[in-house]
Amino acid sequence: MRFYTEKTSDKLSINMKELKAKEYKKFEDIKHVREDGTEYWLARELAQVLEYTNWQNFTKVIDKAMIACNNSGFQVEYRFTDVDKSIDTPKGGVRKVNSLSFY
Question: What span, in angstroms and rounded, lies between the C-alpha atoms of 71 and 15?
């Protein structure tokens, strides 16, 4: 069993707040907003924030999220939409890739 003094717990609390603020900022930095105020995130950007190095691994997470969305009574087609995104290639070119946006 561990006991923490108020000083230690306060310090831990401050560190957790800072960590939460940093994590929150990562998601805010990649958030997109439509003209009507609807917020959304692009899957490929979200994968990077969540530190997925392999797109195929992240698509498995997306599939599970779609199932959970459907099981919760939401329309998957409304919450997950296909979008095209341009990405830079290592040789300086641009390539269009399919992605998803999340609402």
Answer: 36
